[in-house]
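Before relying on records like the one below, remember that each one covers exactly one chain. Contacts with other chains, cofactors or solvent are not represented anywhere in the record.
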Amino acid sequence: MLRISKQDALLWFRFFSQLPEEEGLSPRQAELASAVFLQLEDAANARFDRLKKEIEGLKSLEGRTLYVGPDERFPKGCRSCLLGTGLSAVRRTNRCDAACPFCYDYGVLDQIPPIGEGLWEIGGTRFYEQDLPMLMNIQKRPTGIAYVYLEPFMEIEKYYGVVRAFSEHHVHQHLYTNGLRADEESLRRLGESGLDEIRFNLGASKVSDRVIENIRLAKKYIPQVGIETPMTPEFYELFQQKKDQILSTGLDFINCAELHLNENNLVNYWGESLYACHMGYVSPVWSREISLKMMAQASREHWGIVVHDCSNMTKFARDLNLKAKEGGWFGASSYGAEFDRMPYEAFLPALTDDSLPFVEEAPLPEGYRVGDIVI
């Protein structure tokens, strides 16, 4: 195993970052790159492990994710995702009323193609609402579905019939929203239609009082209500300022999503210390650290809700579970990097970050050292 030093890692990544985009790495260069990614991941995990030790009552969902809080409040949508037949996305709305720096579609929101007039995308196939009984009759129903892409409340009136159709077939349903356009009438109608769970991206509204009130209203009509938002320093600071107000809504859970980056949103986090989980999702190290700090605080202060570590490793387990349920071969997964080519230059700040030391270092063998011809 190449336990490359941080100094050598920095020199090699500076070199890789200067290569033309169309020029790939040679096999030995790829070995060096993967050695650096392993060192960064180990360094990040060492920091995460120290924080985990501070969490009282830390629980595991069959080894697939971590959380604190009462088991009965763990979101059923996450159980479906991690233990059931996976997270089946139902897509309809290609517009949003926010432009969040952490959004995977940051900067290209006006370029998202529509699903099609009157159509819904389910499993990559387009359906009309009247097709749903046929779909339910022909195929095995999933344990759960999720309404995503992009902001459902832009046209929420179109969702009630579809929610009712899935509810009549006993499929667990959850919906993601930034909550800005929600109101008591729409939340009531969603609940009456059979929506089981709603998740508010509170970070998208900068922890708006209006959205906090909508969380409170949602609890009147929808069985499970929670927050799911990428963990950023900005969100953490705003949450602390309004913590009591948020907890008083009666919400059931907070899914602390580890922020991961792609070609669109990377620019907003340039200069942060990044790591790659299993050479897949790329994230700022501080994102999961915030999740673990929130979990420790929830346990210490007895919040009485579930606080869930929706980390990159949770996503790794999710994809393994989904492929297994689909009958995939042993080890099959769709988990991977969000970049066609790893942005080596984006990892340079982590390689100059003294607070992220490598756990173990060793001299490189001959043929891999800086100055050697590595081909």
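The chain is about 35% helix and 15% strand.
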